[in-house]
Design a protein that fits this description.
It is built from 8 helices and 6 strands; from the N terminus they run αααααββαββααββ. The protein is an alpha+beta fold. It has one domain. Helix 2 packs parallel to helix 4 and helix 3 packs across helix 5.
């Protein structure tokens, strides 16, 4: 998960504004309602735009290089070991595994949308995006294999699952009603971490992270849909508490509401479609009930 933040920032600053500016007139002429850089319209594309494809490829390689330099200095340099496998199924009660699924999903969507912007056919872009998003994270896992952390095969499986979730949604449309999202509230931020001299940052503050699987409103019974606004989805969330001591860790299970931003934000413009799709990767503060450990009601759960 620690790779996805740099990737998102790089794409937002470098690639998305260019895509939005160049595609505005083209996309506005298409009747498909969801056709932003993050959506996957079913239309006959123009010939492949190799200038855009080069831009996307450069952004991908540049981001991967940036990640490598950052990770090499922050994590790997002083902890090198021969390549080995090592699974960690205790610390964080596997919240980090869900983070890998979520990160893979975002990266695959970013890359798929970017390749479609380059006019690759939708299905080609979908598969290439899934493969490139998965490989992006697997590269980090491979480098971990040469450090004290080791190559975590469960993390790798989570990377692939997240990366190919959009492909599953494409072939099994019912899955399009189920979205993976994340929320965050600092709990261990800036407190001492597992490496001497280092402090927890957002990506390893597992107690502050909650990952959600939400269900679209339209799957609710008709009687419920009549009284519940269309932008209200139901979600199940998972987090952890007590990570400072492995024996005291407690998994946290929640049920809550999630706002469907594609229902709230008008989808008639490129900006609206892009922001709606983007924001749905995150669960904004909303009511929730913690059912494990113990029952806790939250007026707003962050």
């Amino acid at each position: 998960m620690k790779t996805v933040f740099i990737s998102i920032i790089f794409w937002c600053i470098f690639l998305l504004p260019a895509a939005a500016q160049e595609q505005r007139s083209f996309l506005n002429s298409i009747s498909t309602p969801a056709d932003s850089l993050f959506s996957h319209p079913q239309y006959s594309p123009a010939p492949v735009n190799y200038t855009r494809l080069t831009l996307v490829s450069t952004a991908y390689i540049g981001t991967l290089t940036t990640i490598h330099i950052y990770e090499a200095n922050a994590w790997w340099k002083n902890f090198r070991k021969p390549f080995h496998f090592k699974e960690d199924l205790q610390y964080g009660q596997n919240v980090d595994k869900l983070g890998h699924v979520w990160s893979g999903n975002i990266l695959a969507s970013l890359l798929t949308g970017s390749l479609e912007w380059s006019h690759l056919p939708h299905e080609h872009a979908l598969y290439y995006g899934a493969a490139a998003g998965s490989l992006f994270q697997l590269f980090v896992e491979f480098e971990d294999g040469y450090s004290q952390w080791g190559f975590d095969r469960v993390d790798a499986a989570a990377d692939i699952l997240g990366g190919f979730y959009p492909v599953l949604q494409y072939h099994f449309p019912t899955l399009q009603n189920f979205e993976i999202s994340a929320s965050y509230y600092p709990r261990k931020l800036d407190k001492p971490g597992g490496i001497p001299g280092q402090k927890h940052i957002i990506v390893d503050d597992y107690e502050g992270q909650t990952f959600w699987l939400s269900m679209k409103n339209k799957l609710l019974p008709d009687a419920v849909q009549k009284v519940v606004p269309s932008f209200i989805n139901l979600a199940v969330g998972y987090s952890v508490r007590g990570t400072e001591n492995l024996t005291n860790q407690q998994p946290v299970l929640l049920f809550g509401l999630k706002y469907d931003m594609e229902e709230i934000i008008p989808q008639s413009t490129l900006t609206g479609r892009t922001f709606g799709k983007w924001l749905n990767f995150f669960r904004l503060p909303a009511p929730a009930i913690q059912i494990m450990p113990g029952v806790v009601w939250y007026g707003l759960y962050f």
